[in-house]
Amino acid sequence: MEEFLSVDQKERLREEVWRKMREGGLCPSPEGSIPTFPGQGRAAERLRKLPEYRRARTVMVPPDQAQLQVRINALMDGKRLIVASPGLRDGFFLLSKEFLHPRWWAASCRTSGIKRMGRPLSLNEIGRIDLMATGAVAVGLDGSRVGKGSGFFDLEYMILREIGAVGERTPIVALVDDLQVYPRVPSEEKDVTVDVIITPSRTIRVRERPERPAGIMWEVVNRKILRRMKPLWELSQGAKG
Q1: pLDDT, averaged in runs of 10, over the chain (241 residues)
Q2: Tens digit of each residue's pLDDT (9 = 90 or more) over 174-198
Q3: What is the dihedral of CA 209, 195, 35, 159, to 10 degrees?
Q4: Is 2 left (phi over 0), alpha (psi -120 to 50) or beta?
Q5: Read out DSSP for 140-195?
Q6: How many CB atoms lie within 10 A of CB 7?
Q7: Contact indicator for 139, 146 with CB cutoff of 8 Å
Q8: CA-to-CA distance for 21 and 134, rounded, in angstroms?
C-alpha cells in the first residue's frame, strides 16, 4: 500500500485525468481544476434520486463550477444549502429559497454570487449537515478521492467535523465523469473519502471506505494560508486557548 501514499502519484494521476478530459473533448482546459464534464447535469439529476439526498434538509456543496447544477437543484428542492466561499476566505454562506427570489437562484449559486447573495454564517450557525456533495479529479471504487491539490474540500470537512456539523457517517457523494472513476487512487490519512460515486450513467455505492479525519489535522495545515481562511483562523485561536 505504500505506493498509494505518494503525493507524486497523486499529481501524476491528476495530469493523466486532465489530459484525457482535454484530449477527449470533455473539458477544454481542465488543468488545475475540479473539471466540468458534459454529463454533469445528468449526474446532478441522479443525485436527486438518491434516498440520502431526498431525506436531507441541509446539504453542503463546494463552490466549484462542476457542481453548479447540484447547487441550483438543492435550492430548487428547498434544501438549506451551505456553500464554502472560494478558498474559504470568508467562511461559509447559506443559500435558501426562503430569502432568494427564484429569478436569483442560478446567479446566487455561481461562484461570483455566493458571497454577494448568500447569508454569511458563523460557525455556530451552520448546524447539522445531512449530506455533502462534491466533485473530484479522480475517485476510487474504495471511496478514496483525489482533488485538484488545494485540499480545500478536505479542510472544509475537517472544520465541519471539528464543530460537530458532520460525523463519520454523514453521507458524502462525489459527482464525476465515468472517465474519472478508477479501481484505486492514491490516498493519504488526511483525505476525505466518499460513500457514493455518481456519474452520468451510473450510481456506485462504496462498500467499505477508509475512515475520515476526526477533526482538523493541524499538523497538515499550511501556516501560510491559515490567516486567509476565516473559520480555520478562528478555530486555531480557540485551539491555542
Answers
A1: 59 96 93 95 98 98 95 97 92 95 93 93 96 98 94 94 97 98 93 97 95 90 81 80 49
A2: 999 999 999 999 998 999 999 999 9
A3: -90
A4: alpha
A5: ETTS-EE-SSS-HHHHHHHHHHHTTSS-TTS-EEEE--GGGEES-----TTPPP-S
A6: 10
A7: yes
A8: 18
Q: Which domain holds residue 67?
A: 2-240
The pLDDT value recorded for residue 24 is: 95
Let me know: does 138 contact 108? Beta carbons within 8 Å. Answer: no
Pairwise CA distance, residues 187 & 175, whole Å? 18
Total domains present in the chain: 1
**Whole-number percent of the chain with pLDDT over 70:** 96
Distances (CA, A) of 223 to 72, 100, 197, 227: 34, 37, 32, 8
Say how far apart CA 70 and CA 76 lie, in whole Å.
Answer: 10
CA distance 16 to 18: 6
Q: What is the CATH number of the domain that holds 110?
A: 3.40.50.10420
| DSSP assignment of 64-114 | -GGGHHHHHHHHHTT-EEEEEPGGGTT-EEEE-TTTS-GGGHHHHHSHHHH
C-alpha cell at 22: 482535454
